[in-house]
Design goal:
This protein is α/β, with parallel strands linked by helices. Helix content is about 45%, strand content about 15%. It has 13 helices and 12 strands. The strands form 2 sheets. The chain has a 6-stranded parallel β-sheet, sandwiched between helices. A 6-stranded mixed β-sheet has the order 7-6-8-9-10-12, sandwiched between helices. β9, α12 and β10 form a beta-alpha-beta unit. It starts with 16 loop residues before the first helix and ends in a 9-residue tail after the last strand.
Length: about 350
């Protein structure tokens, strides 16, 4: 009885599904069934195909398969600054939720550059991702609406949609600024400063508006806006050095920072270089309540955002819109929470 011996493995290039079929002595359709519907293939054939796959080192092209099926299992996520722990926590929440359905999240960093942001959106569109999560720099409504119309839904993250045709998941930043400032005002502080930027960032505008709203209701209270170029430790340090250059009576007695990184940077300089006492000389409230906030040299009071929940909820909405494009957009806004620690708690 004669036997047909498998052909040797190809000596060049990546192995294809046709190579697997030839080596296993089956049709290309049978290999496809083994990969996608093994339950309809005889066990002995499944075993032979997998042996060929192992011998050839074959790797299936999921991207091509998904494009042929018309549905990707990848979600694009574009964030403002990947160095900010707020966005890494949002991404973690998104990944956890996506993994429940066998989906993956690919994160890109715009670094607050409109050009990089546009390039990332274009890339994810060409890759036919399941959908796009994005924390936009400016107004991307028209661009994202066209994307949605072409079959790729988009959900804004950490930003309330200005358009009724886009969904968004965010926190009430006006309320966040208000509760931070109200806490300081209740402690008797009257010369408040909001330190954050850039000023054209919607989140900074809303947080400053909340601080101003609280101060407007208190006689003798004032608010100074100190714009920073970004929201890093170094931006906070630069702002603090500028304050130290002033005469003491001209300095604010309380700071609301645009985020925790700015607050911690300012805290380091005010205490280390200015030898000021926190909170006795100046009280500081951060924003986001990242893990570093509680570990600062003086534990930082901060406005907490549900970072993981923002990412999880954004993926839930995106997945539902991908499955049913007729769904009406939803704009979910979570309430922030003030976490009080030693950076404000020392003076009543």
């Amino acid at each position: 009885m004669s036997r047909t011996h498998p052909s040797p493995a190809p000596s060049h290039g990546a192995a294809s599904i046709r190579d697997v079929a030839e080596l296993a002595g089956v049709s290309v359709g049978t290999v496809s069934n083994v990969l996608n519907r093994p339950d309809i293939v005889r066990a002995v054939t499944v075993e032979r195909v997998h042996a060929a796959i192992k011998q050839l080192g074959f790797v299936r092209n999921d991207a091509a398969r998904q494009l042929r099926a018309g549905r990707s299992t990848t979600i694009g996520l574009v964030v403002l600054d990947v160095r900010n722990p707020f966005f890494t926590d949002v991404a973690r929440g998104a990944e956890d939720e996506a993994a429940r359905d066998g989906l993956s999240v690919v994160m890109a960093n715009s670094d607050r550059s409109p050009e990089r942001e546009a390039a990332h959106v274009d890339y994810f569109e060409t890759q036919r991702v399941l959908g796009l999560l994005i924390s936009p720099i400016g107004d991307l409504g028209e661009r994202l609406e066209r994307l949605r119309g072409a079959g790729t839904p988009a959900v804004l993250v950490d930003r309330v949609a200005g358009s009724r045709s886009l969904s968004s998941v965010a926190v009430d930043d006006v309320e966040g600024g208000r509760i931070a400032a109200q806490h300081l005002l209740d402690l008797g502080r009257r010369q408040l400063a909001f330190v954050g930027g850039p000023a054209d960032l919607a989140q900074m505008q809303d947080r400053l508006a909340g601080v101003e709203r609280a101060a407007a209701g208190v006689e003798g209270a004032s608010v100074e806006a100190i714009e920073t170029l970004g929201l890093s430790f170094e931006d906070g340090r630069r702002a603090a050095r500028a304050l130290l250059a002033r005469h003491a009576p001209d300095r604010p007695d309380a700071l609301v920072a645009g985020n925790d990184l700015v607050a911690i940077g300012a805290l380091q300089v005010l205490m280390g270089e200015g030898h000021l006492r926190v909170p006795e000389d100046v009280a500081i409230v951060g924003y986001d309540d990242i893990d570093f906030a509680s570990a600062a040299v003086v534990p930082l009071s901060s406005v907490r955002q549900p970072r993981d929940l923002i990412g999880q909820t954004a993926v839930q909405i995106l997945r539902e819109e991908a499955e049913d494009p007729s769904l009406a957009p939803r704009n979910l806004v979570f309430k922030p929470e003030l976490v009080i620690r030693e950076s404000t708690a020392g003076r009543a």
